[in-house]
Amino acid sequence: MRDRLNRAVRRVPGWLIYLAGFGWMGWLFFQGASGALGPEPVEALEHAYGLLALQFLVAGLAVTPLRRWAGINLLPLRRQIGMMAFWFLCGHVGVWALLDLQSLSRVWAEIVKRPYITIGMAGLLCLLPLAATSTNAAIRRLGGARWRRLHRLVYPAVGLGALHYIWLAKGAQLEPFLYAAAVVGLLVLRAIPKRAGRRGESGDSAGGRFRALSRG
Amino acid sequence: MARRWINDLTPERATPEAAWLNRRQLLAALGAGAAAVGAGGPVLAQGAELEPTSFEDITNYCNYYEFGTGKGDPAENAHMLTTEPWSVKIDGLVERPGDYGLQEILSEMTVEDRLYRFRCVEAWSMVIPWNGFELADLLEMAGVMPEARYVAFETVLRPDEMPGTRRNVLDWPYVEGLRLDEAMHPLAIMATGLYGKPLPNQNGAPIRLVVPWKYGFKSIKSVVRITLTEEEPPTSWNKANPREYGFYSNVNPQVSHPRWSQAEERVIGSGGEGIFGRLSVERQPTRMFNGYDEVAALYEGMDLSEYF
Predict the structure, then answer these.
(1) Which SUPFAM superfamilies does this entry report, sorted A to Z (chain B) (predicted)?
(2) Complex ipTM above 0.95?
(3) Domain that includes residue B274, residue range
(4) Which of A146, A212, B154, B303 sits between 20 and 30 A of A12, alpha carbons compared?
């Protein structure tokens, strides 16, 4: 069963994730523009894109624990998952800046004045170098070890994203805390020391990563 | 009794030819107890270019956490609320405490049309054609004792009809409060309808408070209890987060919410037609007391950044 799943994952072409992701992004936008998202489509889009970005980030964070503890290997699709998180985040910030605030001076004022926006922006800044080095060429240029070190920036990025979500909610809403719990849980799983020989693989070997990443 | 306050925000006055109404003279007339609208000099009326928000938007974009925290949740879930029969318990420092049936109340009250701006603390706004009567009349019906200084309000709490209350998003039941002089101001009304129709459940049926110069959450919905008190009553959002929500919560563009600016507001339903129309929502500057300057006297000598 697990092997069949893993084989199926390997057969999913990367562009299919992009097609689905950008398709969903466009569909949401169309729905907002046509009134299907209710009387305040700008806010609805802002929230939908932001939440999807966080969901993709959490999914990306789940890849290694899933492989290590459940033997499910989504590594071949991790780059696409991470890139979709980045693109939804761009959508989130784009809608906020262009459609909601509608001016650069307001954008700057909000970043400076509102801590939850400041940390959200910090999260986006963490992801910028990761998105920029998401190609095989970049991995070769940086070398596996440096590339991996750089990409640990995803941990603060997800943490800041989860905090941003908690911070902006009114009242004691449950959902932001569920995401934060998922993020903390996934980070804690990573901290558990590896036992040699488990499932006969070393979950984080650079070689495995290279093979996975070379699929573009 | 009623009709103390002259509505200067009517669709007729929203037309360009009426944009030259002297508001100060109107207020002066009000102060003199006259109902006449003075013909005045060319001072731009605040009602200019205002249009009521559509019934659809008013009834589908709501904050009513008892039915869920999403803006669409109340429209989806509020049908579960039974609003008949309905009575309001009026107690505390009143001469005639008791359970007042809604029909009994309405038979004594003068229901008027009041076109009010509505400004949510989340920095969006609507213009709502309410039908309602002045809160002062209801309080007079119960007879306010001289020691009373505050009015406390409570929303109905029925977890089996209000799915949002099964989680402690707020400390249920929802409670709100006003200082007595605020409550007695002719702008403060108890609304029982909008657009001439009975109040939809998601908007606080069958009877709710509307205080147009304060942020929307002060205008408590589906009221079942009104208590006159000597002490400032607790209010739900203030209990949940006193740093962010004060007892007064007057609309004030100068005092930011700690997490966002209150200087401007998004006007719901202001987007145009077409593919990008709906996504180009107008932002307009927020005005002190939501533009209802006539309440300023209530706060004379108070530092409103301290009593926010």
Answers:
(1) Oxidoreductase molybdopterin-binding domain
(2) no
(3) 52-299
(4) A146
